[in-house]
Specification:
Length: 225
C-alpha cells in the first residue's frame, strides 16, 4: 500500500513539473499575443489630416494634407473637401509634419521604426478585418468606401465607429533592404544574414523571448545584415 502511495506521489510530481515547464513556455507567448490586440475608433492613423511631404522618384516631392487609412494602411489626402486615396505607383513614401515617416511597401504604407546602413524596419498597421468580421455579423462590413475611379482613387465615407470596442488592429513588419520590402520572417530574412553571423542568427531563433511580432526584437537584426 505504501509503495502505491509513493508511486502516485512521484506521478503527481512529474505532472506538476511538466505544468511548470509548460507555463514557463506559454506565458511569454500569451503575453505577446495579448499585446498585439490593439483597437482604435478611427479608420485613420492620425486624428486629423496633417501637412505632409509626399516623396516621389528622382528627388521630387509634393505637399498635401494627408493621413493613413487603416483599412489597409494606404495613403489618403484631402482634395476639394473630399478624402481621396492616393494612387501610389509613383510614390516612395511620405513625411508628416511631426517627423513621422512612412515608406511604401508594395501598394501600402509602412511606418518607419528604425534605420541603419540604408536599411529600414517598418510596420504596416491596418484594421484586422478577419477579427472585425468575427466580432460583427460577418462579411466585409467596414462601411466607408465608395469607388469613384477604379484605377486612381477611392472616396471614403465616414471615419468613426461608435462601438466602444473600436476596430481591432494588426501589425505586419517588413525590412526595406536595397530599396525592396522584405517580410519579416525567418525564411526571408536569413537570406540577408552575413555568413559570419549565421550561427548567432540560428541561436537567436531558438530564444523563446525573441519574437518576429515584436519591434524591439526585430531591431536586433540590423546587426546581422
Amino acid at each position: 500500500m505504501a509503495h502505491i502511495d509513493m508511486k502516485n506521489h512521484f506521478s503527481l510530481l512529474r505532472r506538476l513539473t511538466l505544468a511548470v515547464i509548460l507555463l514557463g513556455i506559454f506565458t511569454p507567448l500569451l503575453a505577446q499575443q495579448n499585446q498585439e490586440i490593439r483597437r482604435t475608433n478611427s479608420v485613420f492613423a492620425f486624428p486629423e489630416f496633417r501637412k505632409a511631404k509626399i516623396l516621389q522618384p528622382f528627388g521630387r516631392s509634393v505637399t498635401a494634407e494627408a493621413n493613413i487609412l487603416l483599412r489597409n494602411s494606404t495613403l489618403c489626402y484631402m482634395d476639394s473637401g473630399k478624402v481621396m486615396q492616393a494612387y501610389v505607383r509613383n510614390i516612395l513614401g511620405v513625411e508628416f509634419d511631426d517627423s513621422t515617416r512612412y515608406l511604401k511597401v508594395d501598394s501600402v504604407m509602412g511606418r518607419v521604426l528604425a534605420e541603419k546602413d540604408w536599411k529600414s524596419l517598418v510596420v504596416v498597421t491596418s484594421i484586422d478585418k478577419r477579427r472585425y468580421d468575427a466580432e460583427t455579423t460577418g462579411g466585409d462590413n467596414l462601411p466607408y468606401f465608395e469607388i469613384s475611379d477604379l484605377n486612381v482613387f477611392l472616396e471614403i465615407n465616414g471615419d468613426q465607429r461608435d462601438d466602444a470596442r473600436g476596430y481591432p488592429l494588426k501589425d505586419e513588419y517588413y525590412f526595406i533592404i536595397d530599396g525592396m520590402p522584405v517580410r519579416a520572417n525567418e525564411k526571408n530574412i536569413k537570406k540577408y544574414v552575413r555568413p559570419e553571423m549565421k550561427k548567432a542568427f540560428n541561436n537567436l531563433m531558438h530564444d523563446k523571448f525573441w519574437s518576429w511580432k515584436d519591434a524591439a526584437s526585430l531591431m536586433e537584426l540590423f546587426a546581422f545584415f
